[in-house]
Specification:
112 residues, alpha+beta, 5-stranded antiparallel sheet, two-stranded antiparallel sheet, 7 strands, 32% helix, 27% strand, globular
């Protein structure tokens, strides 16, 4: 779901709401992302989130795994150049009804 909410508080409320027991999917965050010659290297998602919030036109993707083994299995956030953010969740496609329910919950959470 695309949103104007690019603040750290909204992101962590989103994560707490949908995958409270989680682990980062990466152990290194390069700025710019995927760069062979990064300007910055962060080892914690919190630091790259702070950077993305402070740099409103920065692009970056961050992923988390659900460490509890439950659903949804993954959460992600995509910071976009235009200042918007995409909040995402991933779950098993064999449960389409659950996916629709999850989408509704994300829409409600973001006020969309």
């Amino acid at each position: 779901m695309i949103s104007k909410k690019r603040d750290k508080e909204t992101l962590f409320k989103f994560l707490e709401r949908f995958i409270p027991i989680r682990e980062e999917s990466s152990d290194e965050y390069l700025i710019p992302q995927y760069s062979e010659h990064p300007k910055h290297v962060f080892t914690e998602a919190d630091k790259v989130i702070d950077w993305c919030v402070a740099n409103a036109h920065a692009e970056y993707c961050i992923y988390w795994r659900n460490a509890s083994g439950g659903k949804p299995e993954h959460a992600n956030v995509f910071y976009l150049k235009d200042g918007y953010v995409i909040y995402g969740l991933a779950t098993d496609a064999s449960y389409a009804e659950y996916g629709q329910e999850l989408l509704q919950k994300v829409l409600e959470f973001l006020g969309a």
